[in-house]
TrEMBL record:
It comes from the Eukaryota. GO terms for cellular component: cytosol. Its EC number is 3.5.4.5. The keyword Hydrolase applies. The active site is at 80 (proton donor). The keyword GTP-binding does not apply. Substrate binds at residues 67-73. This is Cytidine deaminase. Belongs to the cytidine and deoxycytidylate deaminase family. PANTHER family: CYTIDINE DEAMINASE.
């Protein structure tokens, strides 16, 4: 047995993973193909590091995104935040799974800022798939990628705040 957390993309592994994360194999395949395809839409002339993201909404829609860089380097945005920004502004608030695809192996995982951004909108149990160029993947729940996290439930409900703080 391999000690690597990188899973191969064979159907037996995929079916076991789908059972664990309550996904259908068709949803898994769509998460992979859409996140991989989204890499082609990246604007990354500075790093030349393409990242694609696909999010599966609670009603089985996919929202995709890719990284968008900027000549003022820190202004650039990751694929995950582009995809979640699109999803949220299109009215989606609940998500079943997130996929991120890169061309490196082992695959890249979401940066710290994206983990927190995802934390705002996803349950801690939400699976985050990280694919390499060949479709091999690492999968972790959000709570594994961002332990002891800070989220919206820690704050008082907006309506309970005094008019001025
Ligand atoms: O999970 C990640 C990691 C990096 N990037 C982007 C940011 C930048 O454009 C490029 C290199 O860091 O990759 C993402 O989009 N998502
Ligand atoms: Zn990021």
């Amino acid at each position: 047995m391999s000690t690597s957390i990188l899973s191969s993309a064979d159907e037996a592994t995929i079916s076991k993973v789908c059972e664990t994360y309550s996904l259908k194999p068709t949803q898994f395949h769509a998460l992979h193909s859409r996140s991989a395809a989204a890499k082609a839409t990246a604007y990354c002339p500075y790093s030349r590091f393409r990242v694609g993201c696909s999010i599966l909404t609670e009603n089985d829609q996919h929202i995709d995104g890719a990284n968008v860089e900027n000549a003022a380097y820190p202004v650039g945005t990751c694929a995950e935040r582009v995809a979640f920004g699109k999803a949220v502004t299109e009215g989606h608030r609940k998500f079943k799974a997130v996929a991120v695809a890169t061309d490196i192996s082992p695959p890249a995982s979401p940066c710290g800022m994206c983990r927190q951004f995802i934390r705002e909108f996803c349950e801690l149990q939400t699976p985050i798939f990280m694919f390499d160029k060949d479709g091999n993947f690492v999968v972790m729940r959000l709570e594994q990628l961002l332990p002891l996290s800070f989220g919206p439930e820690a704050l008082p409900p907006p309506g309970s705040l005094p008019a001025r703080g």
